[in-house]
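=== Structure Prediction Worksheet ===
Name of assembly: unnamed complex
Input type: mixed (protein and possibly other molecules)
Chain count: three
Listed entries:
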Amino acid sequence: MEIDPILQKYPKSRDYLIEILHDIQNAHPQSYIPPEVVTRVAKHLNVKQAQVYGVIGYYSMLSAKPRGRYVIRVCASPICNLMGSSNLIDYLKEKLKVDIGQTTPDGLFTLETTECLGNCAAAPAMMINQEMYGSLTTGMVDILLEQYSKSHK
Amino acid sequence: MGKVSIYIDDREVMAEQGANLLHEARKNGINIPGLCYHPKLTPTGACRLCLVKVEGQRGMVASCTLAVKEGMHVTAFDQELEDTRRFLLDYLISEQNIDYDNTYPDELRELMFRYGLHLPQNRFFKPVKPHAEFKVDSSSPVLTYDPSKCIKCFRCIKACDEVQGKNVLSFYERGLASYIVAGMGVWGESECDGCGECIQLCPTGAIVEKPNRNIINLSKVERRVRTTCPYCGVGCQIELLVQNGRIVRSNGVEGVLPNDGRLCVKGRFGYEFVHSPERLTKPLIRKNDVFVEATWDEALSLIATKFGELIQKYGPDALAGYASAKCTNEDNYIFQKFVRTVFGTNNIDYCTRLCHASTVTAMLRSIGDGAGSNSIQDFETTDCLVVTGNNIIETHPVTATYVKRGAARGMKIIVIDPKWTPLVSYATLWLQPRLGTDVALLNGMVREIIANNWVDHDFIQNRIDGGMQSFLELKNLVDKYTPEHTESITGVSADKIKEAARIYATAKTAMVATGMGMSQQVTGTHNVFSLLNMILITGKIGKERCGIDPPRGQNNVQGATDVGCHPGMYPGYIPVSNDENRRRVAGVWNVPFDSLSAKPGLTTVEIMQAAYDGKIKGLYIMGENPMISDPNLNHTEEALKKLEFLVVQDIFHTETTRFAHVILPASAWAEKNGTFVNSDRRVLRVRKAIECPGEAREDWKIIHELAGRMGKPMPVYADESEIFDELAKVTPIMAGISHARIEEHGIQWPCPTPEHPGTSTLYIDRFNTPSGKARLYPVDHVDQTEHATPEYPFILNSGRILYHYHTGTMSRRNKPLTDFTNAHYVIMHPNDAVKNGIKPNTKVRITSARGSLDTYVRIADEVLEGELFMPWHFTEAQVNRLTRDELDPYSRIAPFKISAVRVEAID
Amino acid sequence: MLKEYRIALRNSGLINPESIEEFIAADGYQALRKALRSEPLGIYEEIYESGLRGRGGAGFSTGAKEKAAAVICSDCDKYVICNADEGEPGTFKDRVIMETDPHTLIEGMTIAAYSIGAHRGFIYIRGEYELSIRRLTLAIEQAYQHGFLGNNILGSGFNFDLEIRRGAGSYLCGEELTLIESVEGKRGYPRIKPPYPAEKGLWGSPTLINNVETLANFPQIILNGAKWYRSIGTENSPGTKIFTISGDVVNPGYYEYPMGITLRELIFDVAGGIKNNKPFGTALLGGAAGTFAAENQLDVQMSYDKLKEVGLTLGSGAVIVLDSTRNVNQTMLSILKFFKHESCGKCIPCRIGTTQLYETLANELKSPTFNPNKVYRELVWQAELMARTSLCPLGQSPVLPLKSLHDNLMALLTASNA
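=== Predicted Assembly ===
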């Protein structure tokens, strides 16, 4: 992928690393940061590969493994859990026929869980890529999945 | 700071104010447990085992995170603290794989026994497992990482970052699932260069060396011998572990200079060559072009007879000796004494002539000593460092650790090099001049410094011969080197020239490290003169953390000259041509005054040229391999063939032994006692760890016996320390040094008396010139004598790489090193590759007016367009087939760095 | 009952958050104007006098932190960081401020920067808060255009640059020194404390780091004075607090009230009581790193000191309500799972303890002979040792919910698993 425009957006300083990684991942059709990009970013910021790779490995929003075009992150925090997120997760697993951390064969959706999304008044909540959704029911999930599938085509 | 009283468990102990409490407690024998702390690293506070209670503070505090304060009261041991530590250890064991195979020191295991937790019934917590499956990473040539034994103490990460300045390690994942990664999780594909600092600092069996892993058993290690590394001139102190008569491991020795435990990949993994089955174990005599094994008696009597005949027939000056930068001071001292007293000639030199001769020549003339003016630690603490023509990270990796640590604390680094070197990543500024334009560049900087009045007038007035007058001469000469004019010669932008001049001249303290890129040119001496001019007019010498330091290439290249392996000087840089000197030396050696030649001898390349011309008939080579290291090898080969008698004393067959009449099996560094002198003039002990293989003998003993057989016996020396004592008598700069004085710590010469502590910085009071003042040598840029031409359109540069060493005789006999790299190549600029239709790994023939070789192309923008670079270690592609033996008129050094060549793709 | 009183949420819902003009029309940036006309010393003294305490959870005196960063050196680099890494489960007050009134935060930060002499600031927002990031990015752009950021702000000669840094999914990065590591582009590991950020923070320089809600109080304190602020709330906890109420209540949401409102009022009057008319079970105050309150504690006043008196915590202002039919053991287990997931792994007690606690409870809950008294006693013992030995606040947290459950709600625990 073309990452030069992203690199040029920021000063050449290590403190922009996470910003750069976010932008790359958001722009990547598989929502991840590929190894050759790690090498490029490391060279650009004059740090060693492990300093980039290790940061990806620490932050749960960043991924060094290919994922789907849309990453579904269901809140599994104590509140959403209380308000029924585990049912939602089970529903998504069955509907998408994937386990947590897996991607649908068409490469469209990856199912993940996340800690508190700060949408507790509208629990249970989830994010699809950068969009937040709350007060979810299985019916709403159906509609959302359909919309995302459609918008992709 | 100073010592203050503190109270630990009601016991008064003296501790360093402000120092680390845990460290000070342990120094006082109070063994507070702890796994993440290491004295070389910043405290981490991860393991929490060193918790103590401090009066006036709430709860328990990790002592590794506390500073000593006068009068503080500390509880290090009570029931609650010990219970808490047992709780934490119990926790730790619940996530650990505690299998142990006795191949590495294990600090966790020691604590497990100390707290009785080796007994499962004493453990409270059930094992926990991370969700991730841990896999052992054994992809590195030199180590394995086993995450199941990793206690996540950060010591390896900090070893790599804070100690070595490399920072190639990180954790991956987090929490219980976290584990160490190099690069992107495959160690062997990462930037890890294999120095093994992480191994040395790992407290458990998580990171362990690969070599000998199946052999080593710590309970069967019979000896641990401290000695000095045999590779480059840093002089790292290493500890060799010997099991079953073989070296099975090499560790850095902590707490002593020059390296404080740090090593590079060669120092840690480069010892295998001593056990190579290819070692020479018997004397060999050439009979009808075949080497036949002989007894020592046969070999030595043949040599004595032959050399004797040659002296009779052609006179003493028809003989010559090549000493060795690899041998000890004691070996070299005996060797030069042999050449001078038994041969009766000053034809004694060695490979130093091929590396820093021009540097040494310029320094001797300008400031009076040919050695580095500072100490290795100054590379970390100076404010500015100019590194010119010196790939310091690869050629002096441990000196470079100081440089990188300096960079981390804000030291400004200016790299001057036509070729990219890894130091560029740490540098403030990189000037990339065209090959052979150094004088112009430095004159340009000097002009800029003068134009901005960044000069030190007091220094010029008081410490430079001719004071202002000399300065004005220099000013006149450099006047034409305006930044723009300099740019037109060097290709370095005027802005960068100005910036570099400003940074260097306005720094409070600044040092210069100069290497082969400067010295190995026809203008080598002039290059260093222009460098010294810049240093002198800014007064950046003769003060702490200011000076000029040529890092020396070989372990004892400094020492061999110090002890007299020089055609014009006796030990301690005493000219041979002076009667008084000769009389004094003859007195100590107990030989007739007139038996010592007053005529300075020939230098290395001159000896070879004289052999070619039929003037040198007999040559005794101790541990050198001119058939790789000399310039213009085709010529060298002819010269060697013309010799009537050639003796080569070495540990292996080399490209040179092929031409010998007698080959003598000598000892490797691990098989002998003695001393080396490193780049910061530190005299360091070398100790015997293992026996010589077969009938091989210590070098000095061979020479000593030969002297007797040639009718000029030397005194009986009971051991090497007695040789050193005699050496100290003739060498004023080492007069105060003895083996006994340097058992623990080396001493930096000059050290004139047994009470003298040695000298860490030279020229504080005076320069070592007759007037005590330094001299400026204004020099002009001259065009190189060899240019790119339509027939030879490229300029070829040559140099070293991290994993190999000089002619490869030693380094290429170590699997760990050859596993990293073992292939020759030439680096070409991408634009040149496109122009010439050359793809990566294309096999090419490189041809100069002298010869040709075949190698493979690596394409990288590390070199300028029109320039090429090749490492010279590989006998399969001998770069010196291409180089010239045209010499620098002052130092007789050859221009290894500049050869016009053409490149043709071949199938 | 105390009335709703909006300071941090003054403009929330009343102005278009994407319009700087509407913010200015609502007296926006007047406090900054006033501040820039006075001496920096006057600013941090005013904040100190107001008694404002950190709204992120720890409740330190904001003015004291500010003063420390202001006086440590005059000729050195300093930074202001806004901690917008709101990750405490049940907490979303900062998100509301950033989404509905981003300029108030910018104004507060600029005042803070001026008072300590910082010229560069960062807002560290958790990466999940996409809308907050968008709104703040736009607001910063507008503030630059209007001369409220950048060089020579409002002609005062004061320069201040402000940037956003996104977090990327780590609860621990809400801990101030860990957050600083993250701003530097590193893995989120806590640093050894001391030194505190005011002494050695970002890139080793003095750094003032404050929570969003804290900074959002600055403009009104500067405009109306410390005395005014002290007239709101309680003696030791002046001002208002945004409470985020979630779980089994009729009207979950965010509510800004003066400190001192009772828990009962918050749940039953403000949030409309328990959903479906079920009996009250417990309320978890302050999120995962908080404490469970029992029914007999409902009349406690919501302020730092009053809660502390009864062994409870205000924390971030989260109030998570569980009706009496909820399985509190499962909620506790999900809290422990949360800590296990968020432990960075740097220190032994937290790395291993969070897993040991989780696995112990998970296994015990499966046991037919589950004895909450015995199990929680052991969990509290472990968690207390963890708390005493851990490097940073995360390892010191699990003991809070565990101990409060053990001490206050044994009956509910026993009933839960029956």
